[in-house]
Design goal:
Blueprint (H helix, E strand, L loop, with lengths): L3 H13 L1 H10 L5 H4 L8 E2 L4 H15 L1 H7 L4 H4 L5 H10 L3 E4 L30 E4 L5 E3 L6 H9 L3 E4 L5 E3 L4 E3 L5 H7 L5 H5 L8 E2 L5 E2 L5 E2 L6 H10 L3 H8 L10 H13 L8 E2 L2 H10 L12 H16 L8 H6 L1 E10 H8 L8 E3 L6 E10 L2 E4 L17 E3 H5 L8 E3 L5 E9 L3 E7 L1 E3 L4 E3 L3 E3 L5 E2 L18 E11 L6 E8 L4 E6 L2 E5 L9 E8 L3
Parallel strand pairs: 2-7, 10-11, 15-19, 16-22
Antiparallel strand pairs: 1-2, 3-4, 3-5, 5-6, 6-7, 8-9, 12-14, 12-18, 13-14, 17-18, 19-28, 20-21, 23-24, 24-25, 24-28, 25-26, 26-27
C-alpha cells in the first residue's frame, strides 16, 4: 500500500522526467502484449552506439570469455550452458544494456533528397577523412563519421538540421540527434543503389532483358550500357571495363559476391562492385563513376596506372587480367575465372644462332624445353609451349611516299593476313633478349580470344602510330581456314568460329589521342559506340571503319 505522499512524489518525478515514465512502461512485465504490438510502440531494439565500436567490444568479450576458440573448433559443451557464470549470459547482458528503439514513423523522411546521393566515390568522412564507421547524410549526400554525441554526423545534424543518415557498411538508417533507427520500406531503393544485389536467376536473364530503365532525372538508360565517368585521362580504363563487361562468364562471376568472398584483394571487390553498378537496373542516374576502382588500381599497380596520366589499354588489360587471376586463384590449382575465359596455348619454335645458344645455356635459361643442339650446326632449334591471354598482331609498315594527290595513302590489310603470324610457318625475327627467329602455332583456342594490333612503335625520340586499317568480320571469324588448329579430342567438336563482341579504337595523335569502344548488346544484337559518358547506337558496318587497337572475340558454342 502506497501512502498519498508517495503517490504525489511519483507524479512529480514523472512530471520532471517524462522519459522515465516511458521506461517504466516497458520495464513493467505485467503489461499486456497487445500494448507492445501497437503501431507507435517500439518494434525492436537496436544498438545505439556506433556499430563498429559495438563489433570491436563484442569481439573483445568473445576473446575474453573464450567463445571465439569454441566457435572456430565447433565444440558444443552442454555442461557449460548450465553454469551460472556462463560467458554467453554475460555477453548477452552487456548487449542488452545498450539498446535504442527502432521506429517506422519518422517525421524527417520527407527531407531525404535522392537527387544528391552518389555512392560511387570512396567512403571517407568529409571532415576527418577516416573510412571507419562512415555515415551518409541522406539530405545533402555528404559523408560523416560516427553517430555518437561527439561525432561529426551528430554535429552536422545539429548545425545543418539534417536528420536522416545511413551507415555505409551495415545499411541501417538512423535519425540524429534523436538516435533511433528507422525501419521504413521506402528506403530500400537507397540500399539497392548503395549495394546492388543480384540473384542467380536475375543474372541468367540479363542477356535476354530488352527493357530500358529510367533515372531520377527522367533520362532512359540500358543496364550494362551505361557511360563511365572520365575522372581525368582515364578513358583507357573505361574502354577496358566496357569491353570486359561483354564477357558473360566473367560478368556473371563478379555479379555474385559469394563467388569471391574468400578473396582479400581490394581490387577484386572493387571490380565486383563496379560490375554490379554497371548492370544494376535501379540506379538513380544513367552513368557510373569508377572512382573506387581507380583508387584500388593505383594502389595495386603502385601508381603504374593512375588518375591524370594517359596509359595504354593493352598494357592495362594485360596487367588487370594477370592481377585478378593472381588474387582469385586457389592454392590447390592454378585456375581462375580469368584463365577459364581467356587462356589459350601456343607452341613456339625458336631458332637461335649457335654461339648465342651455348653462351646462354651456361646460365641455365632453358629448363623444361625441348632443344636440338649440334656443335657443328649453325642454328639451334628450341621448342616449347606457353600459355597466353592475348595475341599481338604485327601491322605492315605504312608507305613512306605520298600519292599523286599529295596525300599519304592509308593502307588496308585483312585480318587473315596478319593472323598468319600464328600458322607455324611464318618466321618472326626478334632482337631482344637476343637475336632469334620465332615461329608460333596455336595449340589450344580460348573461349574468348583477345587480339591487339601493334599500332605504336617507340624509339629514342618519339612514339609513331601506324595508321593501317584492319578489315575484319563482325560475325563468323573462321580461324581454321587460315591457321592450323589441333585436332579435337574424342566426342568433342572443333570450335573455331568466333563473333566480335568488343572493339577498342584509338583516335588522334600517338600519346595525345583518346580511346573509344564499340560493344555488342546481346539481347537485341545491336552495336553501341561508347566514349566515357557518351553512349549511342551505331551500325555494325561502322565498327570496322576505325583504327582498331584491341578486340575481344567470343567462341561460338554450336
Amino acid at each position: 500500500m502506497k501512502t498519498k505522499r508517495e503517490d504525489n512524489n511519483d507524479e512529480d518525478e514523472v512530471r520532471e522526467f517524462p522519459d522515465l515514465k516511458r521506461q517504466k512502461k516497458f520495464d513493467d512485465s505485467s503489461l499486456p502484449p497487445a500494448f507492445l504490438a501497437s503501431e507507435n510502440a517500439l518494434h525492436t531494439l537496436a544498438s545505439y552506439d556506433d556499430d563498429d565500436d559495438d563489433y570491436e567490444k563484442e569481439e573483445k568479450m568473445k576473446e575474453a570469455s573464450g567463445l571465439r576458440g569454441k566457435d572456430e573448433e565447433g565444440e558444443d559443451d552442454d555442461d557449460d550452458d548450465d553454469d551460472d557464470n556462463d560467458p554467453h549470459q554475460e555477453f548477452n547482458q552487456v548487449k542488452r544494456s545498450r539498446m535504442v528503439e527502432v521506429r517506422r514513423d519518422c517525421p524527417y523522411l520527407d527531407t531525404v533528397n535522392r537527387q544528391v546521393l552518389d555512392f560511387d566515390f570512396e567512403k571517407f568522412c568529409s571532415v576527418s577523412l577516416s573510412n571507419l564507421n562512415v555515415y551518409a547524410c541522406l539530405v545533402c549526400g555528404k559523408y560523416y563519421q560516427g553517430r555518437g554525441q561527439k561525432s561529426h554526423a551528430y554535429t552536422h545534424s545539429l548545425e545543418a538540421g539534417h536528420h536522416v543518415y545511413i551507415n555505409l557498411r551495415t545499411e541501417k538508417v538512423y535519425c540524429l540527434p534523436d538516435g533511433y533507427e528507422i525501419n521504413d520500406p521506402s528506403l530500400d531503393d537507397i540500399r539497392h543503389v548503395l549495394n546492388p544485389r543480384f540473384t542467380r536467376e536475375q543474372v541468367e536473364q540479363l542477356d535476354k532483358n530488352k527493357q530500358w530503365s529510367r533515372a531520377l532525372d527522367g533520362s532512359d538508360y540500358l543496364p550494362g550500357m551505361v557511360g563511365l565517368n572520365n575522372i581525368k585521362e582515364t578513358d583507357f580504363v573505361n574502354v577496358t571495363i566496357q569491353s570486359l563487361m561483354r564477357v558473360t562468364p566473367l560478368r556473371n562471376f563478379f555479379l555474385i559476391p559469394e563467388n569471391y568472398r574468400h578473396c582479400k584483394s581490394p581490387l577484386v571487390h572493387r571490380f565486383g562492385e563496379l560490375t554490379r553498378k554497371i548492370w544494376h537496373a535501379r540506379n538513380f542516374k544513367g552513368q557510373v563513376s569508377p572512382h573506387e576502382f581507380l583508387q584500388a588500381v593505383m594502389k595495386a599497380s603502385k601508381k603504374r596506372f593512375r588518375i591524370g596520366a594517359q596509359s595504354d589499354p593493352v598494357e592495362f588489360m594485360s596487367w588487370l587480367l594477370n592481377t585478378l587471376h593472381g588474387d582469385l586463384r586457389t592454392s590447390k590449382k592454378n585456375g581462375s575465372i580469368i584463365y577459364d575465359c581467356f587462356q589459350g596455348e601456343l607452341e613456339v619454335v625458336k631458332e637461335i644462332p649457335n654461339k648465342g645458344f651455348f653462351e646462354k645455356k651456361e646460365n641455365g635459361d632453358f629448363q623444361n624445353k625441348v632443344t636440338t643442339a649440334d656443335e657443328h650446326a649453325d642454328v639451334i632449334l628450341e621448342t616449347y609451349r606457353m600459355p597466353f591471354l592475348m595475341l599481338g598482331l604485327d601491322l605492315p609498315p605504312p608507305p613512306l611516299f605520298q600519292d599523286v594527290m599529295e596525300k599519304n595513302i592509308i593502307p588496308q590489310v585483312p585480318l587473315f593476313n596478319i593472323l598468319k603470324k600464328f600458322d607455324g610457318e611464318l618466321v618472326t625475327e626478334v632482337v631482344r633478349p637476343r637475336i632469334a627467329r620465332m615461329r608460333y602455332r596455336v595449340t589450344r583456342l580460348p573461349q574468348y580470344l583477345i587480339l591487339h594490333m601493334r599500332r605504336f612503335t617507340k624509339n629514342n625520340f618519339f612514339i609513331e602510330k601506324n595508321p593501317t586499317l584492319v578489315n575484319f568480320p563482325v560475325k563468323n571469324l573462321e580461324l581454321k581456314d587460315y591457321i592450323p588448329l589441333p585436332a579435337p579430342k574424342e566426342n568433342e567438336k572443333l570450335r573455331s568460329k568466333y563473333d566480335l563482341i568488343a572493339n577498342i579504337v584509338h583516335d588522334g595523335k600517338p600519346g595525345e589521342g583518346f580511346y573509344r569502344v564499340f560493344v555488342q548488346r546481346k539481347s537485341e544484337e545491336l552495336w553501341y559506340e561508347m566514349q566515357d559518358l557518351h553512349v549511342s547506337e551505331t551500325l555494325p558496318q561502322m565498327v570496322a571503319l576505325s583504327e582498331t587497337y584491341m578486340q575481344i572475340y567470343e567462341q561460338q558454342q554450336q
